[in-house]
Amino acid sequence: MSALREYFRFLEGIGVISKSPTTGIETPKRERNGRQVLRSDEYTKMLSLAGANPRDYAILQVFLQTGIRVSELANLIKDDIDFVKPSITVRGKGMKEREIFLEKKGVHALKSYLEVRGEHFTKRVFLNYQGEPISERGIRKLVVKYRKEAGITKKASCHTLRHTFATCKAEKGVSAFQLQQWLGHANLNTTQIYIHLGKQNARKIMQDTSI
User: Fold this and answer.
1) Are 92 and 184 a contacting pair, CB within 8 Å?
2) How far apart, in whole angstroms, are the C-alpha atoms of residue 75 and residue 125?
3) How many whole angstroms separate alpha carbon 81 and alpha carbon 107?
4) Which residues are catalytic?
5) What is the 3-state secondary structure (H, E, C) of 58-83?
6) Which domain CATH number covers 164?
7) Least enclosed by CB within 10 Å: which of 17, 142, 199, 208?
């Protein structure tokens, strides 16, 4: 459409046609890929199912409480956790470090897991059943497992938990600048989508709870 509009504008400009046939035709809006976000009852069901397994429960809580990427969670080491502040230090894309403060649920989940995890030769926080660092693939399979067990039909993934964290924070008024810092986005425009989604969801909540 853009090419045709410019072509006919050129023809109109040199007098070949009197008026461009594209005048008044709106340019189609680019479709955005939908971002899956879990409802509170959905991720609560997943957490409930993982409750008997300290490692799995901690993994889900860290995703939901910090919004980190699956690669960042897989590479988390014990020295990255500060239970005094409390916070975790995350090495994101380009090995850029950022600090994310932990909520009480995240602190409790990590402490409970580390108590049963015991001492191992590796510094990595999350281990597989062989006592070796769990892979990104292993974490993805774990999330899919609990998603299916919870009866969630949408294609929820590790990234869905990241989207859920960001959208929930945006709904509660967290600024785009703060979200950008937590999520490790290089460009603020990437973060703005969550502010937009947060406003949309807030509007729907208002409508659904109308009195």
Assistant:
1) yes
2) 8
3) 9
4) 69, 93, 159, 162, 185, 194
5) HHHHHHHHHCCCHHHHHCCEHHHEEC
6) 1.10.443.10
7) 208
Count structural domains, the chain. Answer: 1
Give 96's pLDDT tier (boundaries 50, 70, 90). confident
Is 7 a member of any domain? no
Residue 170 lies inside a defined structural domain of this protein: yes
Q: Considering only CA atoms, which of 110, 108, 133 is closest in space to residue 120?
A: 133
In a domain, 93, yes or no: yes
Q: What is the mean pLDDT of the chain?
A: 87
Residue 8 lies in a domain: no
Per the structure block, which two tokens stand in for 180?
């950008």
pTM > 0.85: yes or no: no
* pLDDT tens-digit readout, 14-51: 988 888 888 877 766 554 455 788 999 999 999 999 99
| More confident: 170 or 51 | 51
Task: Residue 143: give the domain boundaries.
Answer: 40-208
